[in-house]
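May I ask for whichever protein you like with its backbone structure tokens?
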Amino acid sequence: MSDSITERTPPVIAVEINMIKQQTEKVVLNNAIEIGRRLKEAKDLIPYGEWGKWLVESVSYTERTAQRLMLVFDAYGDQQPATLNADAQTLRLPNMNYSQALILLEVPEEEREQFIMEMDIENMSVRELQKAVKERDQAFLDREQAFQDRDRAQQEKADLQKALDGEKGTNTQLIKERDNLKTKAGDLQKSKRALEQDVEKKQLECDKLKEKTSYKSVQRMSDSLTVAYNKVAANKITFLYENMDKAFKELAYEMTKFASIDPDVHAAYKKMVNDFLIKAMQERMGG
């Protein structure tokens, strides 16, 4: 057996199968791009409303499948020659298959080339590529969320600073109002003391006036009572005098009558009356 013949082992066979798979998948992607190119060309020529019918009757495609193939062409069509017989060595497509190409459509066009350069597409399975795209999308969302959180935090900070500035202005105004109130309170306290002093002064004047008025009233009342008392006393004296005069006249009349009856007794009573009158005048009337 020749030494140039490689021994056929399962690992060797697996390598050959994988190479054929890669070549087949590459051809599938290239063919998908060319089909998408021609579908776009046909769509521009078919009357409006006939597109779905033409796809089913002419190429056995659904509109969804046709749309996906045209998207593949839009994404990768400018990276390969426009002829089916072009040498595979001239293709500028990344070394990926049709399924990977569809997955990469989820990456925005402006970021797709950079993403492909960063990923080892050739050695990644479809599942690994899907995971990488999802992680990229999640990272993008996380970054966008971080930007939003940052912007929100900055806005909240600005709002807080604005609120603090407003509070400072409010506090300054409140301090001014407080100082004004203190000044007014001091003025009111002074006014209160002045009013209290004025009230005390008026009260003293009132008390003095009351005392003065009461004294005069009492004095006038006393004078009136004295006058009234004197008048009563004078009236009493007049009354007594009149009674005494009447009684004396009656006594004198009776004694005159009695003088002719019994002169001695008359003389004795006359002396007794004279002595009584003299003594009464001296003792009781201060004569």
